[in-house]
C-alpha cells in the first residue's frame, strides 16, 4: 500500500482480514516498511507507539488515528527475493521471530509477500503423526473477560502474542486476537459511542466486549 493514515490502514486490514500491510513509496513502489496488526495494537495502548496519542495529540484519539501510517510502521524490514527457497525463508522467519517476508526484486520494488500461513499450507503434506501434546506450549499466558483492552493489548505487545485465551475461573470461554481488537476499534458504532476524543474512553472497555 502507498502511505495512508493509521485509520485507513486499520480499515483495510479489517475489510480484507489482513494482519500486515507492506508500505511502499507511491512513485517507485519501493518497499519502505511494513505495518502489522501488532503495530496498531501498540499504537492503541499496548506499547511505546501510544505516545502518538498520549503526548503528540494530548490524548486526542480521533486526531491521532489520522497520522500517516509511516509513524507506526516497522522500517527495518527483513525481505527476500523470489529466488529464496522455502527452507531458507522459513529459517529466516524462525531466526528473526517474524510472521511474514515481503518479496522484492533487484531494484527493491515490492513484488509479493509470503506469510507463516502460506508455509503452513505448503508443508501440510509433510506432517508427521506427532500429537499436539508433543509440541504444545504449556506455560500459556491468558486474560479474563473483565480485563481492560489497554491491559490486554500491553500483554500481547510485550510478549509478542497475536492471540490470548480468555479464561474465567480457570475455564476457557474464548480467545481474543489482535485482529479482534482491531476490528472492535474500527466499529463505527464504537466511535459514535465515544463521549470524548480521549483514547482512554475506548481503552477502558472490557475484553468481554471484544470477543463476545
Could you characterize what this model shows?
- By secondary structure, this protein is an alpha+beta fold.
- It folds into two domains: 6-126, CBS-domain (Roll), CATH 3.10.580.10; 132-211, CBS-domain (Roll), CATH 3.10.580.10.
- Helix content is 40%, strand content 17%.
- The chain has twelve helices and six strands.
- The strands form three sheets. A two-stranded antiparallel ribbon has the order 1-2. The chain has a two-stranded antiparallel sheet with strand order 3-4. A two-stranded antiparallel sheet has the order 5-6.
- Helix 2 crosses helix 8.
- The radius of gyration is 18 Å and the shape is flat.
- The model has no long low-confidence stretch (mean pLDDT 85).
Explain briefly what this protein structure is.
The protein has 12 helices and 6 strands. It has helices at residues 6-16, 37-46, 51-56, 61-64, 86-96, 116-122, 132-135, 149-158, 178-185, 188-192, 200-203, 208-211, and strands at 20-24, 31-36, 100-104, 110-115, 163-168, 171-177. The strands form 3 sheets. A two-stranded antiparallel ribbon has the order 1-2. Strands 3-4 form a two-stranded antiparallel ribbon.
**CATH 4th-level superfamily of the largest domain:** CBS-domain
Task: Count every helix, treating DSSP H or I runs of 4 or more residues as helices.
Answer: 12
Any idea of the CATH class of the largest domain?
Alpha Beta
Number of domains: 2
Low-pLDDT windows of residues:
none
Which shape, going by the Cα principal axes? flat
Helical content class: 25-40%
Q: Any idea of the CATH topology of the largest domain?
A: CBS-domain
List SSEs in N-to-C order. HEEHHHHEEHHHEEHHHH
In total, the number of strands is 6
Ends distance: 32 Å
Report the radius of gyration as a whole number of Å.
18 Å
- Largest β-sheet summary: 2 strands, antiparallel
Q: Strand-residue fraction?
A: 15-25%
**The CATH architecture of the largest domain:** Roll
Strand order of the largest sheet: 1-2
What's the average pLDDT?
Answer: 85
Oligomeric organization of the protein chains:
single chain
Indicate the structural class. alpha+beta
Amino acid at each position: 500500500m502507498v502511505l495512508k493514515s493509521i485509520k485507513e490502514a486499520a480499515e483495510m486490514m479489517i475489510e480484507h482480514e489482513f494482519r500486515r500491510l507492506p508500505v511502499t513509496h507511491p512513485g517507485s513502489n519501493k518497499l519502505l516498511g511494513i505495518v502489522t496488526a501488532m503495530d496498531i495494537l501498540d499504537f492503541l495502548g499496548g506499547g511505546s507507539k501510544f505516545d502518538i496519542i498520549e503526548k503528540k495529540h494530548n490524548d486526542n484519539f480521533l486526531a491521532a488515528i489520522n497520522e500517516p501510517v509511516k509513524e507506526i510502521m516497522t522500517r527495518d524490514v527483513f525481505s527476500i527475493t523470489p529466488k529464496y527457497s522455502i527452507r531458507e525463508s522459513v529459517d529466516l522467519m524462525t531466526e528473526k521471530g517474524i510472521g511474514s517476508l515481503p518479496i522484492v526484486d533487484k531494484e527493491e520494488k515490492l513484488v509479493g509477500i509470503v506469510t507463516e500461513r502460506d508455509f503452513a499450507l505448503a508443508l501440510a503434506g509433510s506432517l508427521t503423526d506427532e500429537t499436539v501434546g508433543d509440541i504444545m506450549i504449556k506455560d500459556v499466558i491468558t486474560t479474563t473477560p473483565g480485563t481492560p483492552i489497554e491491559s490486554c493489548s500491553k500483554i500481547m505487545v510485550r510478549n509478542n502474542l497475536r492471540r490470548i485465551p480468555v479464561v474465567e475461573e480457570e475455564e476457557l470461554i474464548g480467545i481474543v486476537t489482535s485482529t479482534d481488537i482491531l476490528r472492535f476499534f474500527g466499529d463505527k458504532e464504537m466511535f459514535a459511542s465515544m463521549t470524548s476524543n480521549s483514547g482512554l474512553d475506548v481503552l477502558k472497555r472490557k475484553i468481554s466486549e471484544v470477543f463476545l
